[in-house]
C-alpha cells in the first residue's frame, strides 16, 4: 500500500513535469501547426542556464528559474525570426528536418561550451526536505512540481479561452489572411505564442530536472518522449496533454518500478495502442 | 501485348531506359572504383552499402508514397537479427541469409504498415517511432535470443559460392554487397515504373483522386511496406554478414533518423538520391566524427537547416536542376 | 428505359442542421440531368452522399438496381459510379497520357500490378491516345499537367472519367474556373460522351445547363423544389423565390 502510494505520487509529479514541458509543444503543434522537435532543446537550454546561475553564480533557485526562462526566450526569439518563421507553412517533413537540425546544433554547441557532463540544479533546502501532508510525507520538490503544473494548466486555459490575446491567437490560426485584414498582427501573435511555448519549455526543463536530468543529449533523448506525449494527447488540447502526461507518466514510472528490465517497453506499447485507438489523439481537434 | 509500339510511344521509355542503363553502369563503376581506391576501408564501404539499402527502402515509403517515417530501422534491424540468429544456428549460406533477412524485414514491414496506416500525419510519425522503440526494448529484453545489450557476435558465414571467404579484408563481403545493391536497385527501378509504382506516386500527390479512380489505398501502401521491409531487411542481413556482429544500434531511433537525414540530403523519390545521400553523409561522418562527435552533430544540424531553407529537393534534385539549366541551351537549339 | 441510378428519401443532418432533406431523384440510361441551386443549397453535401464520402442520415442510393448506400467511395467507383471534381484533382508531375493509362489499367484490374509495365503497355497506350485525341489533348499528352492550361486540365478530368467507362457519371461543375472563351471546348467534350451513359451535371453556368440537360432538378436550402424540363425552370415560382430571394437576403 505504501509502495503503491509512493509510486502514484511519483508518477503524478513526473506527469506534471512532463506536462509543463510538453504543453508548449502541444500549443505550437496544435495552434501554430509547427512540428517543433527542437522543443526539448529549449528545455535543455533552460536547464543549463539555471544550473549555471545556481551552481556557478551562486544565485537562488527562484532567481535561477526566472533567468532560465528569460534567457531561453531571448535565445529563441532571433531563431524564430531567422528560421522558424520560414517553415510555418511548409510540409511536416520540412519542419521535422529543420527542427531536428536545430536540435543537433544546440547539442553540439552546448557540449562545446559546457562539456559532456551531467548538470545538476541544486534545490533550496525548503524543496529538498520532505513535507508532511498528514497522512504521509512527500518530497517538497514533488509538491512544487505538481503545484506548478496545475498553475500552468489553469493559467494557459485562462489565457487562451478568456483573454484578448487568446481570441487573436485562435483567429490567426483559423484564418490568417482574414485576421490580418481585421488588424490582427499575426506575425506578432505567432512570435508571442512561440516565446510563451519556449518559456514554458525552459521552466519545465528546470523544475523537471530531477526526473529528466540535464545533459547534452537531453534534447535528443527526450525528443521522442515529448513528441509522443503531445500526439497521444492530441495536439493543441490542454486537457488532452494533461491526461496524456499523467497516463503515460504513470505507465512509465510504474513500469520502471515494477519491471525495470523492460525499460520503456510498456510506455511504447501504450503509445501504439492509444494512437491506433484514437488516431487524432485522446482529445485531438478534428482536422 | 503489342510487340512494336508506335514510334511516338517508344520515345519516352527508350530514353529513360538509356538513362537507367547509364545510371546502373555509373553505380557499378563507382562501386568498383571504391574497391580499387580504398582497399583498406572495405569494411566501412560495405557498411555504407548496407545502410544504402536501408535508405533506399525508406525512399520507397517517404519519397514514393509520401509517408514520413522515423522508424525505418525497425525493418533493417529485423533483417539483421534474423540473419544473425540464423547464422549462429547453423544456416551459413550467405545468399540464404540475405533471403532470411529480407523475409524477416518483409514480415516486420507488413506489421509496421498495418499499424502505421491506421493514422495520418503526426500520429503516424509517432507510431513509426514507437514501433522502432518497442522493438528496441524487446530486443534488449530477449537477451537469450538477441544477446541483449551485448548484441550477437561470432557469426561465421560460409564462403561465397563455396570459394571466397568472408575474411578480415572484407573483399568478398564488399563485392557481394555491391552485387546485391545493383540487383536491388534494378528491381526497385522496375517496381517504381510499374503500374503499382505509378499508383503509389499518385497516392502521394492526391489520395482522393486515386480513390475516385476506384483504387483502394490501403492494400497498395501495405504492399509497399512489405517491399520496403524486404529491402531494408536484406540491408540488415548484409550488415550482419559483413561485420559479423549485430547490435541494438541496428534497431534504433537514431539509425532511423539518420536514414531520413541521408535520404533528404540526397533527395527524395528518385532512388539515386538515396545512394548519393548515404555515401556523402557516411563519408563525412567517418571523417568528422572521428575528430569530434559533437562537431559532427553541429555540422549535420547546420546541413539540415540549409537543405530545408535552400535545397528542399536534396543533392540529386539540385544536381537535376543544375543539369537542366546547363542543357537548356542545347535543347532549345535542337529540334 | 430502365432506371440506372436512384436516390430515395436521402437526408443528411449535421447536428440539428438539415443540409439535405428527403431528396429523391431517379435517372434512366442515357439521361442528361442537371442539378442546380443557389450557394448553400447543399449541392456539395449531395455529391459527397452520392459518391460515398459521407454516410447519409437516412435514405438509400441505388446503382443498376443494387443498394450501394453502405458501400464506400472506392467500391462505388468500381461498380460504375464515376465522378469528376469541381476543382481539378490531378497529379501535377504526371502527363495526361499517364492519367488516362492509369484509369484504363484500373478498369482492366491491372492498375496495381508490380510485375507489369506501365509505359510499355501498348494496348492501354493506344486506347489512351484515342481518348485524348477525341478531346483534343493529343498535343499536350506528354506534357506535365502543371504545364498545361486550366481548360485542358478540365478536359483531362473528363478524359479520365471516359477511360473509366462509367455507367453513371457525376460531373461536378465541369466548367468551373474555365475562361468563358474555353467553355465551348468543355461543351463539345460533353457532347461526345457515350449516348447510353447517364450523366448528372452540377453546374452554375446556366447557358451550359440549358444546352446540355434534358431535365433539371433544383435544390434550395437542402430540399428539392423543382424537377422538370429546362424550359420550365425559369417560370417556376419556387425557383424564382429561391434564387431571387437569396439575392434579396444578400443585398440586405
Characterization of the model:
- Chain C: Belongs to the ABC transporter superfamily.
- Chain C: This is ABC transporter ATP-binding protein.
- Chain C: InterPro entries: AAA+_ATPase, ABC_AA/LPS_Transport, ABC_transporter-like_ATP-bd, ABC_transporter-like_CS, BCA_ABC_TP_C, P-loop_NTPase.
- By secondary structure, chain A is mostly helical.
- Chain A has a domain of 199 residues.
- In chain A, strands 1-2 form a two-stranded antiparallel sheet.
- In chain A, strand 1 and strand 2 form a beta hairpin.
- Chain A starts with a helix and ends in a 10-residue tail after the last helix.
- The mean pLDDT of chain A is 86.
- The longest helix of chain B has 31 residues.
- The N terminus and C terminus of chain B are likely disordered.
- Chain B is 77% helix and 1% strand.
- With 335 residues, chain B is mostly helical.
- Chain B has one domain.
- Chain B has a two-stranded antiparallel ribbon.
- Chain B has 14 helices and two strands; from the N terminus they run ααααααβααααβαααα.
- In chain B, helix 2 packs parallel to helix 7 and helix 2 crosses helix 11.
- Chain C is an alpha/beta fold and 252 residues long.
- Chain C has a domain of 174 residues: Rossmann fold (3-Layer(aba) Sandwich).
- In chain C, helix 3 crosses helix 4.
- The longest helix of chain C has 15 residues.
- Chain C is globular and about 55 Å long.
- The model of chain C has no long low-confidence stretch (mean pLDDT 89).
- Chains in contact: A-B, B-C.
- Chains B and C meet through helix 1, helix 8, helix 9 and helix 10 of B and helix 2, helix 3 and helix 4 of C.
Can I get a quick summary?
The complex is a heterotrimer of chains A (287), B (335) and C (252). Chain A has helices at residues 2-30, 39-56, 61-82, 92-114, 125-128, 140-162, 164-174, 176-181, 186-207, 218-221, 223-233, 238-258, 265-277, and strands at 130-132, 137-139.
Q: Terminal Cα separation of chain B, in Å? A: 31 Å
State the total count of DSSP E strands of chain A.
2
Radius of gyration of chain B: 20 Å
Total separate domains of chain B: 1
User: Strand pairing plus helix content of chain A: what structural class?
Assistant: mainly alpha
Q: Any idea what the shape of chain A is?
A: globular
Which spans of chain A of ≥5 residues are poorly predicted at pLDDT below 50? none
Shape category of chain B: globular
What is the helix content of chain B?
over 70%
Oligomeric state, counting identical vs distinct chains: heterotrimer
Distance N to C terminus of chain A: 44 Å
Helix and strand run of chain B = HHHHHHEHHHHEHHHH
What do the pLDDT scores of chain B average to?
Answer: 87
Helix fraction of chain A? Answer: over 70%
- Major sheet attributes of chain A: 2 strands, antiparallel
Rg of chain A over CA atoms, rounded to whole Å, is: 19 Å
The major beta sheet of chain B can be summarized as: 2 strands, antiparallel
User: Strand order across the biggest sheet of chain A?
Assistant: 1-2
